[in-house]
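Hi R.,

As promised on Friday, here is the backbone we talked about, encoded as structure tokens. Could you run it through your design pipeline when you get a chance and send me back a sequence?
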């Protein structure tokens, strides 16, 4: 597998995680998620790309 494919895949995963964090942040703003729930989800999502 070419090296650039791995980088592209990592970027796609990072973009997906950032998009999900934006969506979760909006849910917190609307009062649907608590700050604690957001922090827990954020940690789990960041582990995916970390």
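Update: got your reply. Pasting your designed sequence below so it's all in one thread:
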């Amino acid at each position: 597998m070419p090296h650039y494919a791995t980088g592209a895949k990592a970027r796609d995963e990072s973009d997906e995680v950032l998009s999900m964090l934006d969506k979760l942040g909006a849910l917190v703003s609307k009062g649907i998620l608590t700050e604690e729930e957001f922090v827990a989800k954020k940690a789990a999502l960041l582990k995916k790309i970390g």
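One thing I noticed while checking it: The chain has a mean pLDDT of 88.

Thanks again,
M.
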